């Protein structure tokens, strides 16, 4: 639990959540994006569609099913029982899981595009020189796909920073534990504290502009053929 000033607590909690989700997605998203970009399996777009579902699903729908999954009667309850808890919902750990699922396409799609743009001749040359599959990925693919990693990390971090529906559904509004900035703004508006809402919302608008600008610049590098 993060104590102290409620607004500072929300800021720190939001940053911790966004950093945790981005780190988790870098680990999970890399092999998934690599497989989606390089696999020849015809059914891979089914997996791609599942990964992209959070882009079109209403946050309340995604949050509802995550709440069931993380709750006491779902898999999350069984996992939480390992350390004596009843549920993963309404906890920081549950927020990380839910926000990671909601932000998954924002990491996977840029990585997939970056991996797909790598010239196949480069990978074949590495294979000819005796590089193993792991060496080809680490020494060749990763450096060439670095712009995609930057874009994916920025987008996942920013999306998590601004997530509202999913975190409210599975985390509630617990100060110091699950109350992030987006929920703090909602509280300010409900209490008619317009000045505080303006300050926080304005900062997030500026942050969103910087994110979009950064991704546009980096996106040009991702779109260039990698050879």
Helix/strand-derived class?
mainly alpha
Measured as a percent range, the helix fraction is over 70%
- What is the oligomer described by this structure? single chain
What letter string, H or E per element, gives the SSE order? HHHHHHHHHHH
Find the count of extended strands (DSSP E, 2+ residues). 0
- The end-to-end span amounts to 48 Å
Average of per-residue pLDDT values: 87
**How much of the residues is beta strand, in percent?**
under 5%
Number of H/I helices: 11
Overall geometry comes to globular
Provide the low-confidence segments as ranges. none
The profile of the biggest β sheet is: none
What Rg do the Cα atoms give?
Answer: 20 Å
Please, could you describe this protein's structure?
The protein is 75% helix and 0% strand. The chain is built from eleven helices and no strands. The chain has helices spanning 6-38, 44-52, 59-70, 75-80, 92-116, 120-128, 133-144, 146-162, 165-171, 181-190, 194-223. Helix 1 (6-38) runs antiparallel to helix 8 (146-162), helix 5 (92-116) packs antiparallel against helix 8 and helix 6 packs antiparallel against helix 7.
């Amino acid at each position: 639990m993060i104590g102290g000033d409620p607004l500072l607590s929300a800021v720190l909690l939001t940053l911790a959540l966004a950093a945790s989700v981005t780190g988790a997605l870098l680990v999970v998203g890399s092999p998934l994006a690599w497989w989606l970009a390089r696999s020849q399996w015809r059914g891979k777009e089914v997996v791609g569609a599942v990964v992209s579902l959070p882009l079109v699903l209403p946050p309340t729908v995604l949050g509802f099913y995550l709440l069931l999954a993380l709750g006491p009667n779902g898999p999350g309850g069984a996992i939480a029982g390992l350390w004596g808890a009843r549920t993963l919902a309404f906890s920081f750990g549950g927020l990380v899981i839910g926000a990671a699922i909601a932000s998954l396409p924002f990491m996977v799609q840029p990585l997939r595009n970056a991996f797909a743009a790598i010239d196949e001749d480069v990978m074949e040359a590495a294979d000819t020189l005796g590089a193993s599959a792991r060496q080809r990925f680490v020494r060749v693919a990763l450096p060439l796909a670095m712009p995609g990693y930057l874009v994916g990390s920025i987008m996942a971090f920013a999306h998590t920073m601004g997530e509202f529906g999913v975190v409210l559904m599975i985390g509630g509004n617990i100060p110091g534990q699950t109350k992030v900035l987006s929920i703090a703004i909602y509280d300010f508006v409900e209490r008619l504290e317009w000045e505080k809402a303006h300050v926080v919302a304005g900062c997030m608008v500026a942050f969103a502009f910087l994110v979009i600008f950064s991704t546009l610049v980096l996106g040009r590098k991702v779109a260039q053929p990698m050879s």
